[in-house]
Each structure stands twice: as C-alpha cells, then as structure tokens.
Amino acid sequence: MADFHGVFPYLVSPVDPAGHVRTEVLARLCDDLVKAGVHGLTPLGSTGEFAYLNNAQRMQVVATTIEAARGRVPVVAGVASTSTADAVAQAKAYQKRGAAGILAILEAYFPLSDAQVEAYFRAIADAVDIPVVIYTNPNFQRSDLTLDVIARLAQHPRIGYIKDASTNTGRLLSIMNRCGDSLKVFSASAHIPAAVMLIGGYGWMAGPACIIPRQSVELYNLCRRARWDEAMTVQRKLWRINEAFARFNLAACIKAGLAIQGYDVGDPVPPQAPLTAEQRKVVEAALRDLA
Q: 9 pairs with which residues across the strands?
C-alpha cells in the first residue's frame, strides 16, 4: 500500500459563473503547492465544494489535478455521494484516471444504521485497487462513523487511513489505540495539527494548507524531528489562520485567501456566497500577520 504522510492541501474547485472549471488556475495552484513542498494533493475535499459540483465538473477537477501533479506527489481524490453505486462509479473512474488514492466521504439524506454506513465504505474499497482514506466529520455528516465501525473498516486491506474532522482530539487517540498500525490518522485543520502529530498522527489534510503551504510543511518537518518547542511556536502563529477561517464558510475563506495571493479562483459555488468586504479584511489581516 502507498505511504501517505505529511501535508495534503484540500484544493479549491475554481468554477466560473457559467459552471466551467478554471483548469489553468487550478493547474497553476497545484504546481505551486508541489513546488512549496506539500506531500500530496486532495481534490474534492470539503474545501473543494464536492457537494455543489456535478460529476462532469468533479472529473475535470480530478483530471486537472492529476495532470498538474505529474506524478511528483500522490493525488487522493474525494469521492462522495448519497448513493453507493454512484460513489463506486466515481472511485473506479478516478482510479482509471490516475488517482493514487481515494478519500471516501459519506453523504446522507435519511439517517443510516452503522451497518449501512460500513457497507458504503466497504463497497468503495472493494471497487478499487488503490488505498482508501475514510473521512469522518460528525459536525456535517448526518450519519457518522462510530469507533466500532472504524475499527472494523480498518481491517479492510485497502482502508489504511482516516481523516478525522471531529475537533475531538481524544477521539483520535481512541482510534489510534483501538486500530494500532492498521489505520493511520490524518488531522483536519479543525484539530491542532502539532498536537495530533505528537500523539501519533501522520499529517493533515486541510484547506488552509492551500494558502500557507510552506509554513504547513515547515510545521510538519519540525514535528517529524520531534522539535516540539519550535513546532509549537510555528503552530501558534498558524492557528490564527484557523481562528479566522472558523468564523466563515471554509471554501469562501480559502478562495478569498487565494484571490489575495493572485489566484483567480472565483467565488464559491451558489447557494454559497463569497466573503463580504469586512470578512475579507479579516482574512487579509491573518495572512499579513503571517507574512
């Protein structure tokens, strides 16, 4: 199984008002992130607004990312649907296109039992020959993964990773204790990445890494070298970005931050709204403080 570790930015999906993916902008962003030292790229995570895109747009985002990466870093593509059959079809298509891994996300309208949740993730992992990262976010998901379900899924030969966005770091330690080496944990930006690395994390998949890639890689490297005092100095500075973004829509914040940095990524996909002028000033100030 591939070894995923380090900083995986959750990429934005630049879409113009007519619904066309701005492939040139996305490709330039991917290239710049790779040159900044990130360890992988994740299109169609939460920051990628997967819930607001159709399948053709999703495929174009994934294909553009894979082409721009040029094999320099692994691309772990987000798969999400309310339908198991549709999720499986997405996963197969992204593997065929060249994705190195799948980030499996569960969307749900009606509540699902533990058995149904487990069956959804198993179906995705059964359908591909590449590693699968299971995603859990109880703040947004109608039907989340319990610790028992996570432990059972960790026994699947292709499910080797979990990205947890619960904000509950104790839950991460419970997952690590329960699953051991069979499931490697990635943090979200909602956690404190340095703290997750301290307890045994392998990195983080997060939207803010799109706009602070070099600082994120620096933090990861300090954690890997167990230089915890220096790591926490960097972490405290970077946490101001997370505090700013926690106040607003994440995709709108990351897109505003990228626009400030010169990437014409456009507005969030409606019905989401871009940041107001006052909200944008908060993002500008956070970036300026880091500079």
A: 206
Max intra-chain CA distance, the chain:
49
Strand-pairing partners, residue 164, are 136
Of 32, 11, 72, 33, the C-alpha closest to 205 is: 11
Distance CA 6, CA 201 (A): 9
Whose CA is closest to 8, among 203, 193, 144? 203
pLDDT value at residue 25 = 98
Residue spans of the domains in the chain: they are: 6-225
Q: DSSP states of 244-286 as a string?
A: HHTTS-HHHHHHHHHHHTT----PPPTTS-PPPHHHHHHHHHH
Q: Say if residue 47 is exposed, middle or buried (CB neighbours under 10 Å; 0-12, 13-18, 19+).
A: buried
| Angle, in degrees to the nearest 10, between helices 250-260 and 228-245 | 110
Name the phi and psi angles at 76, rounded to 5: -105, 105
Range scoring the smallest mean pLDDT among 81-90, 131-140, 233-242:
131-140
Sign of dihedral through CA atoms 159, 190, 231, 36? Answer: positive
For 6-225, the fitting CATH number among 3.30.70.1350, 3.10.150.10, 3.20.20.70, 1.10.3210.10 is 3.20.20.70
For residues 87 and 77, what is the distance between their CA atoms, to the nearest angstrom? 12
Confidence check: pLDDT of 139 > 80: no
Q: What is the pTM of this model?
A: 0.96
Kindly tell me if the per-residue pLDDT of 259 is higher than 70: yes
CA distance 184 to 202: 6
Strand order across the 184-187 sheet: 6-9, 203-206, 184-187, 159-164, 132-136, 101-106, 76-81
